[in-house]
Amino acid sequence: MGKLQSKFRRNSSKYRADSHVRESPPPQVIQQQSRAHTDAVTAVVALKSDLCVSGGKDKAVVVSNWRTGTALKRFVGHDREVNKVVCVFGSNRFFSSSRDKTVLMWDLHSKLGFIQKFLGHQLTVTGLAVSPDSMQLLTGSRDNTLCKWDVESGQCLLKNTISRNLVTHMCWVPGKSYVVQTSEDKVIRVWDSRNLQAAQSFPMKQYIQMHCDVSEDGNYCLTCSNGFGGQGCEATLWDLRQTKGQVREYKGHLQTTASCIFLPKSMCAMPLIATSSHDCTVKIWDRDSGVCRSSLWLDGSGPLSSLAVCDNTSILCASFNLGVHTLRIESSRGPFLQEVATF
C-alpha cells in the first residue's frame, strides 16, 4: 500500500509525570507506510494476531495487517465519521458506530458491505460493547439511551434512558454479564446486560470521563478524563467489587486523556496500564504504585484518540495527523516505549 519510507523520530520526556520515568532509548528508524485512512483515525482495535480494525473521520472502516502496516480491506457504509469500533478478538465480525446515528456489523470475508444495520438512536452513537460470544450488542448514545440488540436479527431487545447520561464509552466485563459505561455527566455506571438496568455506579468525578477499560480478571475498571493544562487529564482505577471510591489516580498528561487500557500480564512482571492523550504522549504506568514508567511523545501526531493491545510486546495508537502508530514495549529495560511504524 505504498512505498516504504524511513524517518527519524525523537522520544521526548517533555510531558513526563515524575522523576521515575526512565530516560528514553536512542532515536530509531520509524517505518512509514501509506495511511489506512485519509483523515483522522478515531478508533482502533485488535481483530486477530496480525490484524486490526480502525475507524476514521473519512467514514471508513479499515482492516489492516498491523505487522506490515498494510491496509487489506476498506469498508464503506456510514454517511458520517466513524467514532468507535469494537470486536471480539479472534472473530471475523466487528462493529462500527458513527455520527450518522447508526451501528453497522461487518464480516472480514464479506464482499457485500455491512451484514447488519442497527437503527434506533436519535443522536450520535458513542458507545459499543459486544458480548464474548458476539451474539449481543449494547450501544450508547448522546441521546442518553442505551440499547441492547440481537446481533443476528438487528432487533432492539431492550432500551433504557437516564437523563444527562451522554455516553462516551462502553466496555464489556470479561466473563460476566456486565458492561461498564462512562458519560459526560462524570458518572461511571455498571449495567447488567440481562435486564439493561444500572447495577451500580461510582462516585462522580470532577471531569468528564472519556473512556473505560476492564482488567482481564474482571476485578478492576480504568477510566480517563478530559482536561487542559494538567487539570483533569488523569486516569482513575476503580475496584468493581466495591463502590466506596477510586483506588488510584494517574496524573501527568497535560491535555485530555482520551484512551486508557490494561496491559496483559504476559507483557511485564509488574501490572501495567497505558494511557494516550491529546498532548501527543503515550504513557505506561505501574498500576499498583501509580508511578509513570515510560513516556513517549509522538511528534506531529496531533491528538491521540485510541489504544489497542496487539500482542505481548506491541500496542497500537490511533492519531489525528499521522494515522495508526505501532509501538513496542520492551519490558526487559524499563519498560521502555518505542515507536516502530506508522500506517
Tell me what the structure shows.
With 343 residues, the protein is mostly beta strands. It has one domain: YVTN repeat-like/Quinoprotein amine dehydrogenase (Methylamine Dehydrogenase, Chain H, 7 Propeller). Helices cover 0% and strands 51% of the residues. It contains no helices and 32 strands. The protein has a 6-stranded mixed β-sheet, with no helix packed on it. Strands 3-4-5-6 form a 4-stranded antiparallel β-sheet, with no helix packed on it. The radius of gyration is 19 Å and the shape is globular. Residues 1-19 have low confidence and may be disordered.
- Mind describing the biggest β-sheet? 6 strands, mixed
Multimeric state? single chain
Global Rg: 19 Å
Looking at this structure, what is the CATH superfamily? YVTN repeat-like/Quinoprotein amine dehydrogenase
By CATH, the architecture is named 7 Propeller
What would you call the structural class?
A: mainly beta
Layout of helices and strands:
Elements: E1 5-9, E2 28-32, E3 41-46, E4 51-56, E5 60-65, E6 70-76, E7 82-87, E8 93-98, E9 103-107, E10 116-118, E11 125-130, E12 136-141, E13 145-150, E14 156-161, E15 167-172, E16 178-183, E17 189-192, E18 197-201, E19 209-214, E20 220-225, E21 227-228, E22 231-232, E23 235-239, E24 246-250, E25 257-262, E26 272-277, E27 281-286, E28 292-297, E29 304-309, E30 314-319, E31 324-330, E32 336-342
Parallel strand pairs: 2-32
Antiparallel strand pairs: 1-2, 3-4, 4-5, 5-6, 7-8, 8-9, 9-10, 11-12, 12-13, 13-14, 15-16, 16-17, 17-18, 19-20, 20-23, 21-22, 23-24, 25-26, 26-27, 27-28, 29-30, 30-31, 31-32
